[in-house]
Amino acid sequence: MEKRAHISGWTLPLLLILPQMAITVIFFYWPASQAIWQSFLREDAFGLASEFVGFENYVSLFEQPEYYRAMVTTAIFSSLVAFFSLACALLLATQADKNIRGGQAFKTFLIWPYAVAPAIAGVLWLFMFHPTLGTLSKPIKAIGIDWNPMLNANHAMTLLVLSATWKQISYNFLFFLAGLQAIPKSVIEAAAIDGAGPLRRFWTVIFPLLSPTTFFLLVVNVVYVFFDTFGIIDAVTGGGPAGQTTTLVYKVYADGRLGGDLGGSAAQSVILMIIVIALTAIQFRYVERKVQY
Amino acid sequence: MAGVTLDTVRKIYAGNVEAVKGVSLGIEDGSFCVLVGPSGCGKSTLLRMIAGLETISGGEVKIGDRVVNQVEPADRDIAMVFQNYALYPHMSVYDNMAYGLKNRGTPKDEIEKRVNEAARILAIETFLARKPRQLSGGQRQRVAMGRAIVRKPQVFLFDEPLSNLDAKLRVQMRVEIKRLQRALGVTSIYVTHDQVEAMTLSDKLVVMSGGQIEQVGTPSEVYRRPETRFVATFIGSPPMNILPGQVEGPGRVSVGGQSIAVTDMREGLIPGSAIEVGLRPEDVQAGGVGTSSLTMDVDFVEELGATQLFHGKVAGAEFIVQASTGQLPADTRKLTLAVDPGNVHLFDPQTTKRLGRV
To answer: Looking at the complex, does the CB of residue B51 fall below 8 Å from at least one CB of chain A?
Structure first.
């Protein structure tokens, strides 16, 4: 029998959820609704007056080739970061899961990058790979590559992917490690007796059993790349060269803050919000309905 | 088919903890060997060393004529049934059983033939498409068995396979395992802490304690003639009663001043020296008259249906007597116990070894 406490009246329950509700409303619903309202307005160049323009901001947004380019950039950026950070984290987690000497220290060090602020991580990588100052650019140049993330869009993207991936590996590593430790040891042993070598064991038993974790992380990573990489982009490339590394979230900032087009910027954030809500919804449905076993 | 030979096998864990202390044992081809002992006696570690899941710190493990110390589990030609079944949760029952064959590159039609045959033997044909989570404990147990038999290995290893089942199912599966092993004739090593399972399943019973073998023998040998006090009290339920006594002379000991005749007694024991006298609860005749007898103060009675257990004290030591129901009134306070000289077991109080005829 389930035991439930019965509270009569509405005062206490309301009082208890009030702080949580207040924070959600003040920091999420209010700005979100403001953004939605703003996306229907157009401001003059000096921010002195605004008029209601309906869906005009959205229409003009989808007429901009830059917006489509930002979409493509975001897609490339997020798939690269998600893939590499998941793959590296999984590799590291499988190694850390083995009984090795100093394993605990290994795990602790792997978690550290997560504590570094995005902008600082960006600056760190920028310094290492700066075309003239960077310690690591020299060996790259020495093998005959004209390395310059300031001018070459591919180089800039590579650098962004590197720094964003580096920062996200820790988070993924933790989840993968927990996922691996949740797999009963005897199942792996049974597979070993059943004649599966380490690699085959991984792909036919461990990886399928990790699939709920992997899917969860995929969604979280995509959301991370969509929003949290803003600091890294701003510090490393500032969306350049020539807007080639401007992602959707960076464009919101560039158009609104730098370009002064608040209405257009608001429209973009509304679209971003819809994308993330959709992603989260898919994740919840999937995780609830189709957990692998 | 092949037998298994262990030669002074040791397992030493980090921190110099010796879990298995030099065990030597020969298991004949096609026989059913049960390793039994309390938790932490090293029986599971020993089994896992035979399986190749634990490294061997010392000694030699042979399957057939081959030393397998350095051989991978997959190449030892063994199959193992785990306590928690260790089924692959994401695979169907069919795939669970086929996995080991697939890994070895068995042709598809051969896999199908073998899996279907195993499924028929174990009566799980109707579940082949299901996932393990859709099965009951007993059915999962069958699938685990199926996964072992499709491979037609040299040796079956069982690691407490029935301990997750309820009591009724356990009895049923126990009988099935025995029948299956007889039919297939595969050498089997079975680890359990349940002495009933150990007695009923084994051709060869190995009692372990503290990382060492206490006694090896057929179940009836181990029951009839336990070599140490540990074996005497571990095998048999309720356990054997141990009373403090003294040597009187050849074939005679005394317990609490009462003299008892003993058939199986070592010669040359010094009269007056301390000795431990073991009597099984089912071997003493409550209320009977015999050549030697003991008196018992009864504390309480446990009703088991067909039998009753009288708990009390003999010569100051705890004592249990088993009697058929109705043989004695339940309010009995004092009992006279008739002791058959052939049923008395003697142990050395220091070494705890049996002091029987050499």
So the answer is: yes
HEC secondary structure over chain B:
CCCEEEEEEEEEECCCEEEEEEEEEEECCCCEEEEECCCCCCHHHHHHHHHCCCCCCEEEEEECCEECCCCCHHHHCEEEECCCCCCCCCCCHHHHHHHHHHHCCCCHHHHHHHHHHHHHHHCCHHHCCCCHHHCCHHHHHHHHHHHHHCCCCCEEEEECCCCCCCHHHHHHHHHHHHHHHHHHCCEEEEEECCHHHHHHHCCEEEEEECCEEEEEECHHHHHHCCCEHHHHHHCCCCCCEEEEEEEEECCEEEECCEEEECCCCCCCCCCCCEEEEEECCCCEEECCCCCEEEEEEEEEEEECCCEEEEEEEECCEEEEEEEECCCCCCCCCEEEEEECHHHCEEECCCCCEECCCC
Render pLDDT for B299-311 as a digit per residue (tens, 0 to 9): 999 988 888 899 9
Residue A83 pLDDT class (50, 70, 90 cuts) = very high
Cβ of B100 and A209 within 8 Å? no
Position B280 scores a pLDDT of 94
| CATH class (in words) of the domain with range B238-347 | mainly beta
Q: CB–CB of A200 and B103 under 8 A?
A: yes
Residue A1: pLDDT over 50: no
Q: Which CATH number is B4-227's, of 3.30.499.10, 3.40.50.300, 3.40.30.10, 1.10.1740.10?
A: 3.40.50.300
Residues 187-206 of A with CB under 8 A from B: 187, 189-197, 200, 204-205
B89 at the A interface (CB within 8 A)?
A: yes
For A246-283, write each residue's pLDDT tens digit: 888 888 888 877 776 778 888 888 888 888 888 888 87
Chain A: residue whose CA lies nearest to B81: A190
Please give the ipTM for the structure prediction.
0.82
Predicted model pTM: 0.80
